[in-house]
Amino acid sequence: MKCSYCNRDAVYLQRYSGKHFCKRHFISFFEKKVRGTIKKHRMIETGDVVAIALSGGKDSTTLTHFLIENYSGRRDLDFFAITIDEGIANYRHKTVEVAKEVTRELGIDHYVVSVEKNFGATLDEIVKFGKKSPCAYCGVFRKYLLNRTARELSATKLATAHNLDDESQTILMNFINADIDRLARLIPQREQEDLVMRIKPFREVYEREVVIYGMLKGYKLIFDECPYSELPMRATVRDFLYEFERERPGRKISILRSLEKLSECLKITNPQIDLNNCEICGEPTSQKVCQACKFVKELREEIKIEHCRSLVYEKV
Amino acid sequence: MKCSYCNRDAVYLQRYSGKHFCKRHFISFFEKKVRGTIKKHRMIETGDVVAIALSGGKDSTTLTHFLIENYSGRRDLDFFAITIDEGIANYRHKTVEVAKEVTRELGIDHYVVSVEKNFGATLDEIVKFGKKSPCAYCGVFRKYLLNRTARELSATKLATAHNLDDESQTILMNFINADIDRLARLIPQREQEDLVMRIKPFREVYEREVVIYGMLKGYKLIFDECPYSELPMRATVRDFLYEFERERPGRKISILRSLEKLSECLKITNPQIDLNNCEICGEPTSQKVCQACKFVKELREEIKIEHCRSLVYEKV
Q1: What stretch of H or E contains B67?
Q2: Element (DSSP H or E) covering residue A159
Q3: Greater model confidence, A137 or B302
Q4: Residues of chain B with confidence (pLDDT) below 50
Q5: What pLDDT, on a 0 to 100 scale, did the predictor assign at position A88?
Q6: What is the ipTM of this complex?
Q7: Looking at residue B157, which CATH number applies to its domain?
Q8: Which of A28, A123, B33, B223 has the greatest count of CB atoms below 10 A from its CB?
Q9: Up-side HSE of residue B93: CA atoms within 13 Å toward CB?
Q10: Do B251 and A176 touch (CB under 8 A)?
Q11: Cβ A244–B240 below 8 Å, yes or no?
Q12: What is the separation of C-alpha A178 from the centre of its chain, rounded to a whole number of angstroms?
């Protein structure tokens, strides 16, 4: 097949639009699309210091390259990367090394933050004794460290590599679970003290498009999956959406649009609440005690774990 | 397995509650549940004349029995049945006969309304030449005739046999399609002139539960499927929900709850609009010309079809 825009061979068929793209036109489409998302939602504005959550996986590696290559020419912006080392044997060590290569190549500051050094236990240890799912612990401790590190290093934005597949899964899952509060929290929120505003530049492009872009640009991408990755409910929703998208291309975009259409009314019925500071650690939370501190309290009966008092990070 | 309420053998495991039911306790659960739904949403109130949409299929047969056996003792209520004969060869004739048996047995008035006698063409003829899907034509003409017959026969409510499976599929489909207007219309609406208020007494019980109830009560149920039944999108959603419900029982109930949680805000952003009378036939519509008249106009170029001027129905 030929490209819909020129005479070159196509490398990608975008099913929802019916368009074929050659390498050059796909790269150009992708960059225009993501820059458009960033502009429309004012994700990056003059004066911003953007912390990039870089795990070393395919999505965040591509995001880091994308942001630096497209925006670091601007003198009014600053970028650095944060990698959380959760302490997962046979997995995280390799991706941390990849992350270090990426930032070395791009010449940006990079900080590695270890769950073990900050809480006294690795995720592997926590999972062994905790009653919750690995992803529950990992999500809470990772977000805690990402936000705190970004803030202490004066970031104004925290960029994550969530793509359209991730977003549509999360939206649908919350809708199916009647979890309208969580649904409301997916709408871009106003700024809150101590909470670095999260941005998702890839939220309007498919995971497949992120990977194709990264590969066409020649980035070294690794496809290792976390050994704890299971999330049965998300997997069911993911498979359904895959099937659905195959039959009716564009449904994932529709789901994002559903949330946007509902956002005005969700803002009225589920207004964003003001955050408190956790009574134990002082980090922002909607409760009295933040979820990380609650987990630490629960886990302390089983393993040696402690509150993260002053943040420890390693500058690469 | 034994019943969770007595010492008898269980005939049904309700997966979302983990409860086992013997025949007697299942019947008692089902009747309490549906009567509760009717009461909560004020579906049937004193003075109501309820038209029951009775196709002769398993769900509407069970609904007709249920309503008559549970409510016809009340002198302040009246019931009759309407069957639409769309004109579908090798299918509808049989279910119309079953419907007649049901109303004869129950001793209620029954009206059969034919698409052919009212519009001059059968659904089979329409489908042969029309460009839309069979279900698109059928849905519009059936709803037109149901509402008009119910109103001309002085009904105050029109009861349909939609169950929890139908409702959760519709809700999810509209959400996935970003069709928030249609989502809003699934919220119980206020009364509108010329539109008989539709009620769905089975909307909070599973299709499986409707069938089990009907079989335990000894109703003669037929399981024939409409030959046009395809609806690829609904089928994908249905299969997904089946799988999902199997893994996480109760998800269909969650979807209904999602809509309820969103209903307050949908009422604000998508208020119910006042209906007009169709310029051609006078029936209620949100447009200038109703969808049935639009279809007639389109189809007139292909087949002999006419506006339904005065309604024709056959009293059984």
Answers
A1: helix B58-71
A2: strand A157-159
A3: A137
A4: none
A5: 93
A6: 0.84
A7: 3.40.50.620
A8: A123
A9: 3
A10: yes
A11: yes
A12: 23
